[in-house]
Write a structure and sequence with these properties.
Radius of gyration: 20 Å
Shape: globular
Distance between the termini: 50 Å
Strand order of the largest sheet: 7-6-5-8-9
Order of helices and strands: HHHEEEEEEEHEHEHEEEHE
């Protein structure tokens, strides 16, 4: 069956920019939001009113010290929706349910007996059930050590032996929520850029250690990536045994 529409589907382009600005920055005065998105005071009110009514945004009246002038900063309600994250490794599927600020609400892990798409899909469904319960996530993000050019199809995942697997569509059919697929190092770099140690920096590099040394890069607040990086040709350097 087709996945139902995301709750964000009906947002206009400018409303989406507003939500993303609040998601990344937290509470913002309307004047600052106008600067980031490039809209007028009237547009801020007109575009955010339906989002406040829907419970996605909150606002409160505050007085600015020294001036006494009231302000009504806006903030995204982190608990307005939940997001399901799934990490696919060689041995297991790890699932987390988070709020919109990436704070973990629940987590679970299911071991993998084999790497066929059917077996992995079964593990994905089991792991998702462990963390969601009666809560329905707004969307699902899957991260694995492989490459994808469109966020839908796994073009190559060497440790699974996958080539051209339409993982996002398979997960949407199984779980009934919108899904997107990405490289795990790119996903981790994006997490740090949005909510982690790099949230206050426009440029930074991320290094990971494990079976190899991974390298992620953010410039102007955006993750720098390429097909080669996702395959590990420049983002991962193998470490020999005993090194």
């Amino acid at each position: 069956m087709p996945a139902p529409a995301s709750p964000w589907t009906d947002l206009t382009g400018t409303q989406r920019e507003i939500v993303l600005a609040l998601l990344r920055s937290g509470r913002l005065p309307r004047t600052r939001l106008m600067e980031i998105v490039g809209i007028s005071p009237g547009s801020v009110t007109r575009l955010t009113a339906p989002l406040i009514e829907a419970g996605l945004l909150t606002t409160s009246t505050e007085r600015v010290a020294g001036t006494g002038r009231p302000q009504s900063p806006l903030e995204l309600r982190a608990d307005a929706e939940h997001v399901l994250g799934l990490a696919l490794s060689n041995r297991a599927v790890t699932a987390v349910l988070t709020d919109l600020r990436a704070d973990v609400v629940a987590s679970g892990r299911v071991e993998l007996a084999e790497h066929s798409p059917a077996a992995v899909l079964d593990a994905v469904a089991e792991a998702a059930a462990l963390v969601t319960g009666a809560r329905r996530p707004a969307c699902t993000g899957l991260a694995l050590g492989g490459s994808t050019t469109d966020g839908r199809v796994v073009d190559d995942a060497g440790f699974y032996g996958w080539h051209g697997v339409p993982l996002a569509a398979l997960v949407e059919e199984r779980l009934g929520v919108p899904a997107v697929v990405g490289n795990d190092l790119v996903a981790l770099t994006g997490l740090e850029a949005w909510f982690g140690a790099g949230a206050e920096s426009d440029r930074f590099a991320l290094l990971t250690t494990g079976a190899g040394i991974g390298y992620g890069l953010v410039i102007d607040g955006e993750v720098v990536t390429s097909a080669d990086a996702q395959l590990g040709l420049i983002s991962n350097v193998p470490v020999p045994d005993g090194a």
